[in-house]
Amino acid sequence: MNKKVLVVDDESSIVSAIAYALRREGYEVETANDGEEALVKVASFHPQVMILDVMMPRLDGYGVCRRLEDRDDIGIILLTVKNDIVDKIVGLEMGADDYMTKPFEIRELLARVKALMRRVEKSSPPADEQKSQAIVNGDLRIHVAHRTVTVKEEKLDLTPKEFDLLTILMSNPERVYTRDDLLDRVWGMEYAGGTRTVDIHIQRLRKKIGDTDQQKLQTVYGIGYKASAPNPGGSA
């Protein structure tokens, strides 16, 4: 299968430079100049990775992320001229996987695309692998092969990283993971972001699975996080 990357930016010089570098590395590349065009290209091109500028006409990068929030098969790298931690957090909360500030080195961008592509491919298991495997904790059920999560039989919209993070924790209940452990396992050694990324994704997961009392995903203060053991008396 070809490795497909969609490059989205309203600056044609940036789009051309990135697309040229990616094609030289063997990627199949499509481009778009605004958010609305990007959504059309996603539907027709089916990229595994999207390089997405934040500040664009018609629909900005954050808006694109919101519209793609229920997709678990696209890795997103956001590009922006801003270098503020708040903007980075907003991007991650919108479902982006990585973040780069302009101007950037094209070699670093290529390295991040390569790392994200590996993670996206690794998270897509073969169709015949563990078809019936499920992880259950109370009314929460993770369907591993299909990469879906339900609570009280209602399907949740999780990003790829949210799904991977939840699956790792729920697969090993009561095991304590440090933030660095989870960062390495979910985002990979090449990821340049900090451990705050893990905290943001845990907060989002708790909200989505209805874990307001933090019983399923527990904070181990000064260390990291763990999932509680399934309650034998709870629903399944």
Automatic annotation (TrEMBL):
<dbReference type="GO" id="GO:0032993">
    <property type="term" value="C:protein-DNA complex"/>
</dbReference>
<feature type="DNA-binding region" description="OmpR/PhoB-type">
    <location>
        <begin position="132"/>
        <end position="229"/>
    </location>
</feature>
<feature type="modified residue" description="4-aspartylphosphate">
    <location>
        <position position="53"/>
    </location>
</feature>
<dbReference type="InterPro" id="IPR011006">
    <property type="entry name" value="CheY-like_superfamily"/>
</dbReference>
<dbReference type="InterPro" id="IPR016032">
    <property type="entry name" value="Sig_transdc_resp-reg_C-effctor"/>
</dbReference>
<keyword id="KW-0804">Transcription</keyword>
<dbReference type="InterPro" id="IPR039420">
    <property type="entry name" value="WalR-like"/>
</dbReference>
<keyword id="KW-0902">Two-component regulatory system</keyword>
<feature type="domain" description="OmpR/PhoB-type">
    <location>
        <begin position="132"/>
        <end position="229"/>
    </location>
</feature>
<dbReference type="GO" id="GO:0000976">
    <property type="term" value="F:transcription cis-regulatory region binding"/>
</dbReference>
<keyword id="KW-0597">Phosphoprotein</keyword>
<dbReference type="Pfam" id="PF00072">
    <property type="entry name" value="Response_reg"/>
</dbReference>
<dbReference type="Pfam" id="PF00486">
    <property type="entry name" value="Trans_reg_C"/>
</dbReference>
<dbReference type="InterPro" id="IPR001789">
    <property type="entry name" value="Sig_transdc_resp-reg_receiver"/>
</dbReference>
<keyword id="KW-0805">Transcription regulation</keyword>
<dbReference type="GO" id="GO:0006355">
    <property type="term" value="P:regulation of DNA-templated transcription"/>
</dbReference>
<dbReference type="InterPro" id="IPR036388">
    <property type="entry name" value="WH-like_DNA-bd_sf"/>
</dbReference>
<dbReference type="GO" id="GO:0000156">
    <property type="term" value="F:phosphorelay response regulator activity"/>
</dbReference>
<dbReference type="InterPro" id="IPR001867">
    <property type="entry name" value="OmpR/PhoB-type_DNA-bd"/>
</dbReference>
<feature type="domain" description="Response regulatory">
    <location>
        <begin position="4"/>
        <end position="117"/>
    </location>
</feature>
<keyword id="KW-0238">DNA-binding</keyword>
<protein>
    <submittedName>
        <fullName>Response regulator transcription factor</fullName>
    </submittedName>
</protein>
<dbReference type="GO" id="GO:0005829">
    <property type="term" value="C:cytosol"/>
</dbReference>
